[in-house]
C-alpha cells in the first residue's frame, strides 16, 4: 500500500551502495556495464543494449530467458543530469500495455558509508511512475529490487550474478 504522500500508481525504492554517484551513473549509462547488473531473475540475460544518455536519446534493452523468450524494454531519455539524475520513459515492446508509457527516474545522492567509514557511498532513489495496476507495480517492484541489489555488487567490482545466484556473468 502506498504512503499517503506517494501516488498509488508509483513505486519508489531506496538503495544504499558503496560507490560514488559518478560510479553508479557510469554503470547506469554504459551499454557495456548494463548487462553486468541488470539481473532481475536467475538465468535471465541481457541481449542487445542501447543507451543514449542525453535528452531525446534512446534507451533499449533485451532480456532473454533460459528458454530463449525475449522481453524488450524501450524508452526515451527525458532528463539527464550527470552523476545526479536519469529519467526516461518506459514501455515493453514485447508486452504492449504492461507498464506502457510509464516513467523511470534514478536519483543519486552522495551519502555516508557506515560500513566503510571514509569511503564513498550513494543513496539511490528509484521511482517508477504511471503503473496503474497492482500487477504492474508488483512485477516491476520485484524486478527493480533484484536490479538494485545487483547494481550494488557491480559498482563495488563484484560479479553480481555470482554473488546473487552462484552464476558467472559470462555463463
**SS-based class:** alpha+beta
Choose one word for the global shape.
globular
- Average pLDDT, to the nearest integer? 89
- What kind of sheet is the major sheet? 7 strands, antiparallel
Please give the radius of gyration in angstroms.
Answer: 16 Å
Structure annotation, total helices: 4
User: Order of strands in the sheet with the most strands?
Assistant: 1-7-6-5-4-3-2
Number of strands: 7
Query: What is the straight-line distance between the termini?
Result: 38 Å
Structure description:
The protein has 171 residues and is an alpha+beta fold. It is built from 4 helices and 7 strands, in the order E-H-H-E-E-E-E-E-E-H-H. The chain has a 7-stranded antiparallel beta sheet with strand order 1-7-6-5-4-3-2. 24% of the residues are buried.
Question: How would you concisely characterize the structure shown here?
Answer:
With 171 residues, the protein is α+β, with helices and mostly antiparallel strands. Helix content is 23%, strand content 34%.
List the helices and strands and how they pair.
Layout: E1 11-17, H1 21-29, H2 34-37, E2 45-51, E3 58-64, E4 70-81, E5 85-92, E6 102-110, E7 122-129, H3 134-154, H4 160-165
Antiparallel strand pairs: 1-7, 2-3, 3-4, 4-5, 5-6, 6-7
Amino acid at each position: 500500500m502506498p504512503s499517503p504522500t506517494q501516488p498509488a500508481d508509483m513505486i519508489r525504492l531506496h538503495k544504499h551502495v558503496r560507490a560514488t554517484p559518478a560510479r553508479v551513473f557510469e554503470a547506469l549509462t554504459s551499454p557495456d556495464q548494463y548487462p553486468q547488473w541488470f539481473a532481475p531473475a536467475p538465468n535471465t540475460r541481457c541481449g542487445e543494449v542501447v543507451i543514449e544518455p542525453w535528452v531525446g536519446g534512446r534507451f533499449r534493452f533485451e532480456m532473454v530467458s533460459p528458454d530463449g523468450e525475449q522481453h524488450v524494454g524501450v524508452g526515451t531519455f527525458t532528463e539527464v543530469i550527470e552523476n545526479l539524475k536519469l529519467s526516461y520513459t518506459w514501455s515493453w515492446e514485447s508486452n504492449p500495455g504492461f507498464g506502457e508509457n510509464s516513467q523511470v527516474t534514478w536519483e543519486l545522492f552522495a551519502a555516508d558509508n557506515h560500513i566503510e567509514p571514509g569511503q564513498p557511498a550513494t543513496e539511490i532513489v528509484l521511482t517508477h511512475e504511471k503503473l496503474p495496476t497492482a500487477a504492474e507495480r508488483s512485477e516491476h517492484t520485484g524486478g527493480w529490487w533484484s536490479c538494485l541489489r545487483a547494481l550494488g555488487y557491480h559498482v563495488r567490482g563484484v560479479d553480481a550474478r555470482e554473488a546473487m545466484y552462484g552464476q558467472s556473468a559470462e555463463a
